[in-house]
Every structure is written in structure tokens, then in C-alpha cells.
Q: What sequence folds into this?
């Protein structure tokens, strides 16, 4: 019945971890990670995000200690200093920062927002997201969209593919325009890399992909791509290339040492996660291998402009963060209030049934008299629960979760404990007046004379 809980998170990302450590934390796919987390004691919801620059997981539990235990072995082979553990509020704020591009290797880049949306869709398909994570993730996506629509955070931002081209321009011993370039991978990142190379007008550009048809489609879509090929041709293609950017989603190396034995002088930039290129390839004379870690050295002429926009995004996150916390508070209070009213309603229906049965034993009751008994019971509930309702809303506003959790335990309606006549089991939960009073949230304003008048009416009848 309850969706109350706290979120715990864990992150292995480029700001603390090396590409090898991120790769280690991403050894299992997100579906496997989520399934494993859902089996942990106390975990009711789970979500995982994996990109080139990060591997993260989030769980919802009733107790924060259960969340920490569930995530304790998320990255067992990664040194402690590279793993960031986050409590409830840290997790909420971090998700917003990730979606806005503030946590990206390239400040403000757009790809992360699409990657987050894709991860959320996948999690929905597995049924691992409930109301707690749903609210957090939808808020993060909303912040990411606001950041890009209302600020200049992504103006002039480069993708990893563009950053790779800038690194190549800085490291090649000849002008990049003279390069014979090879892009391995025709997915999102491979497409961005191919477009970046085409924009600098390299002398030759070939796209290689496991599915040749995808590479051929990309070559038709992007002017400047000269040819498309399959992975089976990669050894021969490496002989002719002096610049290679790899960006596949393969779980295994697609460029190994055997492929490079006859390659000669070649610069390889690996922007894939997990890595596409065997690090041992760097041992060949004339072959240099660079990975995502090296891209941090690439300077960006528009960085100052986006740094200023980042301050605006930070303020935006503060605003949306407060709104999200307030929303959670209202929901927690409303859950407790709902439990309280449901419990009271069950008691009322049982006792009203008993009272009507006794009255009928003394003589027939009219419909009007039955309604009078119901009104008396509703009026009593309204007055008795008015003060607790206000106290629970005040407790939510003051972050007094102990009071709310206690109320939810005390008033959690045990439906199986109540025996109601069949005709009452399908009756409305409460009268319109009682429901209106609860939904308005103002139970302090009640008709104090109503119970007396009802009793007097019953006596007159």
C-alpha cells in the first residue's frame, strides 16, 4: 500500500575513476544489475545508468541502511576512492546534475539526456521503477530539458566524437585535413565522430561496422564519408589509416594486437565503454592509443561561456530540488493521512452496521434515519481526525519522518481484521462530505454542533 522510502545511490564516474574502473563497474548490463539489486533485502525499486563516462545504480528502501548494504558491492574491483556513495538527497541532486550535463566530461553535452531517457524506458520495461524513482527520474529529465532550453549550457559544447577530433588535431604530426581516417562503429557516438571528421574535411573517411548495412546507411546520410565496410576488413583498412576513432557497443575488443601488426604509424582514439581497443596495442612502434581519460586535456574555447551558464543551472537545480522534496513530503503525509482515514472508515462501517442492526431490532428504520446514523459517524471521524491530520502535515513540513512513519504503522488499515456484512463491503468508502473534507486538507474547520444535532434528530425520530 505504501510507497514511502528513501533513495540510495552509488556512482563510478570520470571525475573520480579511470576508464578501466568505469569499465569494471559496467561489467554487467543494466538489466542484470537491476535484477540483482531487486533481490536484495528491503529493496523495492532499482535503476541503473551506464554510459561512456559513468556506471551508477539507485535503490529505494524503507531504511537507508538497507540501501547502503544493497549497493555495497556494486563495484567490488574498484578502489574505494573511485566509488561515490550517495544518500537520499545527494542522489536526487546528482541525478539532476547528470541530466543537465554538469557531471559530463564535456560540460553541457546533450548525449547524456538522451541516454538517461533510454535507461528510464528500459527500466520501465522491467518493472523496476516505482513511484519514488519515477518522481526523481522525471524531475531529473525535466531539469535537463530546462537547462538546455533556458540557458546556454550546451552552446558550443562538443560531443565525445568532436573532442576526439580535437585531440587528434592536437596530437597528429601532420594537419588533420591530410589524415586518412577510420571510424569503427555506426551508432550514436560513431555517427558523431564521423560527422566531426567530415566537418574538418579529412582526406579519406571510412566507416566500419559489424552490420555493413548500417555503415552504408551512415555513409549515405553524412556527406564526406567515402566508403563503408565490415569488421572483417578491419586489418586491411588499418594499414591504410593513420587516424582511427572507435565507438562501438561491443563487450569485447574489436581492435586487437593482431589487427595492428602491419598497421604502421597510426593514432587510435577509443571513446567506447567498454573499451574497443586492446591497451596492449600501444606497445607497437608508431601506434599510439588514447582513451576517454585523455579527452579531458582537450581545451574548449566556449568553456567560459558554458561555465557561466552552469551557475544558472545550479540555481535551477536548487529550485527544482526544493520542489521535489516538498512533493515527497506531501506524498508521505498524504499516505499516512489516507491510512488513518481508511482505518477509521473500516471501524465506522463496522460500528454503524452494528448500530443499525440493533436499531432495526427495535423497529423498522427509514432511509432518512439510516442516513442520520451515517452522518453522525462521519461527523465524529471528521472531528477526531482533524488534529492528527494537521499534525501529520506539519510533521512533513518539518521533515519529522519518525512521526509520519509511526502514524503509518499505527493507522495502517488491517483489512483482513475487519468483518463487514456483504452489503457494506461494496459500499462507498465514505460520504461525499467526509471525502470533501479530507481532500481539501482543512480538517480544523468543522461543524462542532453536528453530532449534537444528529443525536437530537435520532431521539425525535
A:
Amino acid at each position: 500500500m505504501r510507497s514511502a522510502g528513501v533513495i540510495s545511490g552509488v556512482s563510478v564516474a570520470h571525475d573520480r575513476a579511470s576508464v578501466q574502473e568505469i569499465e569494471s563497474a559496467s561489467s554487467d548490463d543494466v538489466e542484470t544489475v537491476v535484477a540483482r539489486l531487486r533481490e536484495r533485502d528491503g529493496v523495492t525499486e532499482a535503476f541503473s545508468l551506464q554510459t561512456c563516462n559513468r556506471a551508477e545504480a539507485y535503490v529505494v528502501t524503507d531504511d537507508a541502511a538497507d540501501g547502503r548494504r544493497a549497493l555495497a558491492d556494486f563495484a567490488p574491483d574498484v578502489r574505494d576512492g573511485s566509488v561515490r556513495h550517495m544518500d537520499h538527497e545527494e542522489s536526487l541532486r546528482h541525478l539532476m546534475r547528470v541530466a543537465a550535463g554538469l557531471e559530463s566530461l564535456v560540460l553541457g553535452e546533450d548525449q547524456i539526456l538522451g541516454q538517461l531517457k533510454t535507461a528510464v524506458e528500459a527500466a520501465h520495461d522491467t518493472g523496476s521503477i516505482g513511484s519514488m524513482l519515477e518522481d526523481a527520474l522525471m524531475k531529473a529529465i525535466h531539469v535537463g530539458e530546462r537547462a538546455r532550453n533556458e540557458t546556454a549550457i550546451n552552446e558550443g559544447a562538443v560531443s565525445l566524437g568532436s573532442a576526439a577530433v580535437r585531440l587528434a588535431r592536437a596530437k597528429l604530426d601532420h594537419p588533420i585535413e591530410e589524415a586518412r581516417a577510420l571510424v569503427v562503429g555506426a551508432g550514436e557516438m560513431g555517427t558523431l565522430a564521423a560527422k566531426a571528421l567530415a566537418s574538418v574535411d579529412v582526406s579519406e573517411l571510412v566507416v566500419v561496422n559489424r552490420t555493413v548495412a548500417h555503415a552504408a546507411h551512415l555513409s549515405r546520410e553524412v556527406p564526406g564519408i567515402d566508403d563503408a565496410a565490415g569488421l572483417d576488413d578491419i586489418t586491411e583498412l588499418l594499414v591504410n589509416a593513420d587516424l582511427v576513432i572507435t565507438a562501438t557497443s561491443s563487450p569485447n575488443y574489436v581492435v586487437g594486437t593482431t589487427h595492428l601488426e602491419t598497421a604502421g604509424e597510426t593514432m587510435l582514439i577509443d571513446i567506447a565503454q567498454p573499451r574497443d581497443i586492446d591497451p596492449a596495442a600501444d606497445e607497437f612502434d608508431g601506434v599510439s592509443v588514447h582513451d576517454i581519460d585523455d579527452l579531458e586535456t582537450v581545451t574548449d574555447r566556449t568553456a567560459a561561456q558554458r561555465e557561466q551558464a552552469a551557475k544558472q543551472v545550479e540555481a535551477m537545480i536548487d529550485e527544482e530540488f526544493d520542489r521535489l522534496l516538498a512533493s515527497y513530503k506531501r506524498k508521505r503525509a498524504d499516505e499516512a493521512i489516507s491510512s488513518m482515514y481508511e482505518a477509521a472508515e473500516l471501524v465506522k462501517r463496522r460500528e454503524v452496521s452494528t448500530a443499525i442492526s440493533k436499531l432495526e431490532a427495535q423497529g423498522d428504520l427509514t432511509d432518512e434515519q439510516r442516513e442520520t446514523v451515517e452522518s453522525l459517524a462521519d461527523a465524529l471521524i471528521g472531528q477526531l481526525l482533524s488534529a492528527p491530520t494537521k499534525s501529520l502535515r506539519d510533521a512533513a513540513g518539518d521533515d519529522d519522518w519518525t512521526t509520519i512513519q509511526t502514524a503509518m504503522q499505527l493507522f495502517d488499515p488491517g483489512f483482513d481484521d475487519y468483518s463487514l456484512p456483504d452489503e457494506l463491503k461494496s459500499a462507498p468508502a465514505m460520504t461525499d462530505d467526509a471525502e470533501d473534507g479530507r481532500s481539501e486538507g482543512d480538517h480544523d474547520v468543522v461543524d462542532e454542533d453536528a453530532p449534537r444535532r444528529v443525536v437530537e434528530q435520532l431521539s425525535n425520530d
In short: The CA atoms of residues 148 and 459 lie 69 Å apart. Residues 414-461 have pLDDT under 50 and may be disordered.
